[in-house]
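I hope you will forgive my troubling you with a question about protein structure. The matter concerns a single protein, recorded as an amino acid sequence and a row of backbone structure tokens. Please examine both parts with care and let me know of anything in them that strikes you as inconsistent. Here, with my thanks, is the record as I have it:
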Amino acid sequence: MDDCLRTYLLFLSNCQSMEELWTAHTEKMAQFGFDRIIYGFTRYRSGTSLGDPEDFIILTNHDKDYMDVFLGEAHYANAPMVNWALTNEGVGSWGMLEAENRLKDLSPAEKRLLEINCAVGVTAGYTISFKSISARSKGAIALTAKRGMSQADADAVWAEHGRNIHLMNNIAHLKILSLPYSGPKRNLTKRQREALEWVGDGKTMQDIAILMGLTSATVEKHLRLARENLAVETTAQAVLKAAFANQMFILEA
């Protein structure tokens, strides 16, 4: 392992925020020609569903207009490399799409996605599907080659640097899973998080009221709002979801 790679992996492993990690990782991938990337992770996969999109961890440096269409119109459900990632682990070259497209008739949804991607130069790249940690979890990252690069160009980069790129993304993925994350509508207030933490410690409502210096009614209000923010029905579910998102027992900066 060369010194530059070792230095970068050490930096990744010590990142204390999602923002710090993502800024560094997008810059690092751009050095290899992959200047637009999308990371996605869910813990709520079941059957054919990936769960509520608002519960996904989504990190990207793609243009907002593109992501509003890709995510907002749920085109990810028809993306061939997303479907590949759901049933495979490891590295997939987008070159496989050309062969597949020649052998089958594309559905209207697949044709629409192909048009959207071609319009913004999302045509060459690689997808890494990470090893799942449970039957309900799945994570992957799509590395889009910069405009003007062909798939052959991307394949040449991968032939030379692919093992290191794969390693860096694996480490980034594992680090992301350890960092606090909240979607646009899933962020807990400090009081909501504190109340959930005491529930997680097994304290009764009366205990929590004393510990927080509040009335039982106010504690219940914080727990109710936490349930609403996390889109769950019970406090036990709220504790579980907040724990999954690393929003409990976090160290304040």
Q: What stands out?
A: The mean pLDDT is 88.
